[in-house]
TrEMBL record:
Family statement drawn from the similarity comment of this UniProt entry: Belongs to the GDA1/CD39 NTPase family.
Source organism phylogeny: Eukaryota, Viridiplantae, Streptophyta, Embryophyta, Tracheophyta
Signal peptide annotation: none
SUPFAM superfamilies, A to Z: Cytochrome P450
Keyword Disulfide bond: no
InterPro entries in the record: Cyt_P450_sf (IPR036396), GDA1_CD39_NTPase (IPR000407)
Protein name: Apyrase 1
One Pfam family this sequence matches: GDA1_CD39
Coiled-coil intervals: none
Residues at the catalytic site: E202
Binding site for ATP: G232, G233, S234, V235, Q236
A single Gene Ontology CC term: membrane
MF-aspect GO terms: ATP binding; heme binding; iron ion binding; monooxygenase activity; nucleoside diphosphate phosphatase activity; oxidoreductase activity, acting on paired donors, with incorporation or reduction of molecular oxygen
Residue stretches spanning the membrane: 28-46
């Protein structure tokens, strides 16, 4: 005989127990696993950004967009961006292919047109400010196909110039621009697409533009380039930092832009340091430096030979050159007094402008025009002040080494063309469906999450709901019946195996039809094989299935008595399905307080005194002395039945009676008198007729729409 050690036996028992538990809860495990699989399927179906082979690449980011989406026409899409700066207004029109790489517009990679002055120069006439954009709008309409104009989004982003005017005046100008676009533009535009960009948005767009064109997106943050954009009214600085440094970023006051933005670009998370310095732009700096030298008839920063005044916003300053020429040293002192070196919180490495500033400041206007023919005539007088300020800003403001080389960029090479290095391209990229910047959270940071289309999200939620219902259905129709079947069979009950959905309903109906088709033997009182033929196969205690609900049929009086007399409370009333309760909700299905209330009403009819009367009435029918029931008491109790039966007696003294209706009438009269206190023939008959009619209708209805286990 083979023996097992105690440890081995325990290990085998433990293994079997684990396997049994897994088998027992396999339905629950499947229900839990199904949503995970569905969510994975939804994520698999999520739109993905196509791979880009060029340097421009693709930003695979998600979230809420600031503005509209660019429209697609086959493989091309367009976006029109107006840069309403302080030094002038510019329009950019970009085209993208299916990979969201830039495609040429005409002979150039983009349409770029500009016009001076900017919107802020029309602070007192908002209508004239709006009309200054008409010529640029017409240029944009020339390059966008006519059939796509109504679907091509147009954005107007005003920058530092309008921010410096204040909320009321800038909003008046923006409203005039909105009305102009509504009446005269063929592009798609909405009121909230014409707005003032905050400094952090402008800087972030600028950083995206440069790194997009250089093919740096998707690479580690250390491989990207930082950007310092010197505008007319402000200067923006943006560069990527490590996550460790991002945590150390200084806190900002309420209403101010956050220094660090979190972006997900081309699968890589960047922590972007962005800051905008208002009033530190080139045009604003001219005004501040000239303001610092007020009190003299001339400025030490203006070139010799220039006579005039300089206007910025609502202010006008003396801007005539000194007869002795500009002084680099004095102008440097004025610029150094304007720049606050403690205001900058980041370190960049620009190059040295000092040498050029010293040389330019020695020239007069005519010599400067000859030396720098590419500089516009209106900017020639300000060369000295501009170069001195740029040098002062980089060295004193940003704290850089005077001899560090930097790259000054007006346009960035892109393929065989050059693209304007400005924030509008970053804005146009953000307009496209697959090139998204994450939304701002409460702290000003941009959240990073994948955007799921609403339709896909709704379908996913509906799928989860349907999957949950399917799991519940499978549990009720298969796993639960199978577990109950194993448990009941383990107790020795025999019966038919469980069949999905219908159970034994069809089989029992077939057996009953076959039994009813065979006549009963003469004088046979064994009707069980006729009305319950399934008992023949299952025995006096068998298992049958009504849909997914098991039914234990007990035909043994002893077992039935034990069950009925049990005080353990294991025997519960049958649980009627909800659909059945709509058709019939009688006393047999009541539970709880309802059953207690109805039981109090019914109990008096079955008290001992009432039962004695009931038995006394039945005793009269058994105390007869002859077959004609001529007993006086009996006839007095049942005169109608006695007379009817007496009239049926033939000449030979015998008669044939249909016992079934007579017994119904007899017992009905007894129950009516006992329970209702009235005669069966007066009120009881009508009550029983209504009950019989209700039962017939219920049976007929169930036979038409029967759902085993549910109705």
């Amino acid at each position: 005989m083979r023996r097992y050690s105690g440890a081995g036996a325990r290990q085998q028992q433990q293994t079997e127990a684990v396997a049994d538990r897994v088998h027992r809860y396999r339905g629950v495990l499947l229900v839990l696993l199904a949503p995970v699989l569905l969510i994975s399927f939804v994520l698999l179906l999520m739109p993905r950004a196509p791979a880009s082979t060029s340097g421009g690449g693709l930003l695979a980011a998600g979230g809420r967009r600031w503005g509209p989406r660019a429209v697609e026409d086959g493989s091309n899409k367009y976006a029109v961006i107006f840069d309403a700066g302080s030094s002038g207004s510019r329009v950019h029109v970009y085209g993208f292919d299916e990979n969201l790489d830039l495609v040429p517009i005409g002979k150039e990679i983009e349409l770029f047109k500009q016009k001076k002055p900017g919107l802020s120069a029309y602070a007192k006439d908002p209508q004239e400010a709006a009309e200054s954009l008409i010529s640029l709008l017409e240029e944009a309409e020339k390059v966008v196909p006519a059939e796509l104009r109504q679907q091509t989004p147009l954005r107007v982003g005003a920058t530092a110039g309008l921010r410096a005017l204040g909320t009321e005046r800038s909003e008046e100008i923006l409203q005039a621009v909105r009305e102009l676009l509504r009446d005269k533009s063929s592009f798609k535009s909405q009121p909230d697409w014409v707005t003032v960009l905050d400094g952090s948005q402008e800087g972030a767009f600028q950083w995206v533009t440069i790194n997009y064109l250089l093919g740096k997106l998707g690479k580690p943050y250390s491989n990207t380039v930082g950007v310092v954009d010197l505008g007319g009214g402000s200067v923006q600085m943006a560069y990527a930092i490590s996550e460790k440094d991002a945590v150390k970023a200084p806190e900002v006051s309420d209403g101010e832009d956050s220094y660090v933005k979190k972006l997900l670009l081309k699968g890589t998370t960047y922590y972007l340091y962005v800051h905008s310095y208002l009033h530190y732009g080139l045009l604003a700096a001219r005004a501040e430096i000239l303001k610092a030298g007020e009190g003299n008839d001339y400025s030490e920063c203006m070139l010799e030979g220039h006579h005039g005044k300089y206007s910025y916003g609502d202010n006008t300053f003396e801007a005539s050159g000194s007869p002795s020429g500009a002084s680099y040293t004095k102008c440097r002192a004025l610029a150094a007094g304007f720049v606050n070196p403690n205001a900058a919180t980041a370190k960049v490495k620009p190059s040295d402008f000092e040498e050029n500033a010293r040389r330019v400041c020695k020239l007069n206007v005519k010599d400067a025009q000859a030396t720098y023919p590419d500089v516009s005539e209106e900017n020639i007088p300000y060369l000295c002040i501009d170069l001195v300020y740029q040098y002062t800003l980089l060295v004193d403001g940003f704290g850089v080494d005077p001899y560090q080389d930097i790259t000054l960029v007006k346009k960035v090479p892109y393929g065989d063309s050059h693209v304007e290095a400005a924030w509008p391209l970053g804005s146009a990229i953000e307009l496209n469906r697959s090139l998204l910047l994450p939304p701002l959270d409460r702290g000003g940071n941009r959240q990073c999450f994948h955007r799921v289309p609403w339709s896909l999200l709704v379908c996913g939620l509906l799928g989860l709901a349907l999957l949950r219902q399917a799991g519940r259905l499978v549990h009720r129709m298969w796993w639960r019946p199978r577990r109950l079947e194993r448990a009941l069979c383990a107790q020795g009950l025999r019966g038919t195996p469980y069949r999905l959905l219908a159970g034994d309903v069809r089989e029992n109906a077939r057996l009953i039809r076959e039994a009813c088709s065979r006549p009963l033997p003469p004088r046979c009182h064994d009707i069980a094989p006729r009305v319950a033929p399934f008992l023949t196969a299952g025995g006096r205690a068998c298992l049958s299935w009504f849909g997914p609900v098991p039914r234990v049929i007990v035909a043994d009086p002893g077992v039935a008595g034990d069950v009925l007399y049990s005080k353990f409370g294991h025997l519960e009333k049958p649980n009627f399905p909800a659909l059945t309760r709509l058709l019939a909700d009688g006393v047999a299905g009541l539970e709880g307080e309802k059953w207690v209330r109805h039981r109090r009403i019914l109990n008096p009819a079955f008290h001992l005194e009432k039962l004695k009367v009931l038995m006394n009435l039945f005793s009269f029918i058994h105390s007869r002395r002859d077959p004609l029931f001529s007993d006086e008491v009996c006839c007095r109790r049942f005169p109608r039945a006695a007379r009817r039966w007496a009239e049926s007696v033939g000449s030979d003294g015998w008669c044939e009676l249909d016992v079934w209706p007579e017994l119904q009438n007899l017992t009905g009269d007894v129950i009516s008198r006992t329970a209702f206190g009235t005669s069966y023939y007066l009120e009881g008959r009508r009550i029983f007729q209504l009950q019989a009619e209700q039962a017939e209708r219920l049976v007929a209805t169930i036979q038409k729409i029967i759902i085993p286990g549910y109705l």
